[in-house]
Amino acid sequence: MQAISEAAAALLAKFTPVQLRVYVGDTLRAMSILSASYTATGGGSEQFTIGCSCSAQATLQIAGAADLEGKTLKVCWAINGEEYPLMVGTVTAETYTGGVSELQMADAMSQNGNDVYAPAEALLAECTLKAALEDCAAQLGTTLNADIATLAEQITLETGVGNLPSDITIAAAAGQMAALLGGSAAIDRSGALTVLRFTASVGTSDAYSGGDSLRLKAYQVTGLIFRRTNTVTVDVPGAGAQTVDSTEDFPAGTTGAQIVVENNLATQALTDNAWAQMQNLSFYSGSFEIPGGLLYEPFDQIDIRATGGTYRTLITQISLSIDGGVRGSVTSAGAPVYGGAKNGYITKRLQDMAKKVYTLQTSVEGLSSTAATQDGKISQIEQTAEHITASVAEQGKALSDLQIKAGEISATVTSIVENGVDKVTTSFGLTIDESFVHIQRSGSEMENRLDETGMYVMRGNEIMLQANKDGVIGTDMTVRNYLIIGSHARFEDYTDDDGAAGTACFYI
Predict the structure, then answer these.
(1) Which parts of the chain register pLDDT below 70?
(2) Does residue 33 fall inside a structural domain?
(3) pLDDT digit string (tens) for 205-225?
(4) Using CA atoms, how far apart are residues 415 and 396, in angstroms rounded to an integer?
């Protein structure tokens, strides 16, 4: 929420008209601003999340010719002689019709955020989060917000930013960095790179009656998972050393309504730190119109007085229309708990002294029944209109599944843990483990192997056929009819007019 004086806040509460001012550099530009619209996003449209790169845009209606396309402007609002920033951005387009200039503005994240991030060499080793964010800010053409710099200086990236993808954009890199502070990257109203975080203060506003939409259940974030992608080297038969990607999860909180965020800078300690900033977050989602709203920003919490009561929301997008008065349009993105049975759910949980738990949950989506013991034995049945699924698991030992769909029944997969490696084996010779997918019947010398590098058909230890990035290589290959090479050559058996057999190469 934008900080202003008590006197200015009191005037805004009475819906006192505000003025708009435009600066080109540090110079106030004398002009008559007829109206303005402003939109700021906080990431996540349907599903609430963090680690986004957020942006702001504005449109100005100005009397007369402006001639400001390509210029960087600072737009401010003023009341009772006090002035506060609204947005800093570049004029990306200007049109002049009927004596009025319309200016389209975009902030630095929109303008430069899609460029590829090229980290400074010093950041490829241990560095502070502050140094990494300052590097992103410089490449966006701005500076780092001072308050965020203070917070980020306390966080150390043990391996620097070297694990970020080589083709990551500046905006995406800033988003991953911002997630470590429990928020999303954005450009603040003064034009500096900042991190949108959940504020402790809560505003209050009335919703306009009529078409306002709020979910009937509050969305509560129950957990956070940072998912890091690691590049590792593996030895592939016939292909040698190959680099592959593997993912590593760092969870915090509990299961349920978890947020999963791709973050190549993550560690468990950094995940725990981010989770501490948001673990008590609970809000109603929806969209609604409000009077005023000039002070509100993405990630602000606000109590909406609407038909049926007062609802705590979290702003993920705000749009303002300013023409003296101010009218706001607010969106709060979220998802209902338990996957969202909109018409309600019933959960029954029974637990005895032996730590045996039985849970029955019914909703409009279907029925779920789970029985579990403290030693990891679990059985589960789920029924929906589309299918029935049943599973029985004993932690680290066995797993059986039964799935019934219309026209299909699948059953019996066994999972074991062997020498610390998870493996799945079927009765007809299919094996899946952390290295390959194997297909080989007992007693057969032929084996098929499949992994992320390609496909390999083996006879003993010999590769008979392989298909990977190097192409297709085969041993003892027979073509029964004809062979086409490239686009213009075809080889095949040929018999001439005298009945002599040979081999011909035809141009095609």
Answers:
(1) 43-46, 200, 209-216, 232-239, 335-380, 384-387, 390-436, 438, 442
(2) no
(3) 877 754 466 666 778 888 999
(4) 8
The pTM of this model reads: 0.64
Same domain, 302 and 180: yes
Closest CA to 68 of 18, 115, 110, 27: 27
Closest among 187, 204, 457 to 330, alpha carbons compared: 204
Q: 317 lies in a domain?
A: yes
Torsion sign, CA atoms 189, 194, 200, 202: positive
Q: What is the mean pLDDT of the chain?
A: 81
How would DSSP label each residue in 331-355? Answer: EE----GGG--TT-EEEEEEE-TT-
pLDDT in tens, 280-300: 788 888 888 888 889 999 999
Q: Is the dihedral of CA 429, 433, 437, 438 positive or negative?
A: negative
Question: 119 and 225 share a domain?
Answer: yes
Instruction: Give the Cα separation of 330 and 343 in Å (integer).
Output: 24
Q: Yes or no: say if 266 and 272 are a contact pair by the CB < 8 Å rule.
A: no
Same domain? For 135 and 200 the reply is yes
Domain hosting 185: range is 41-50+108-340
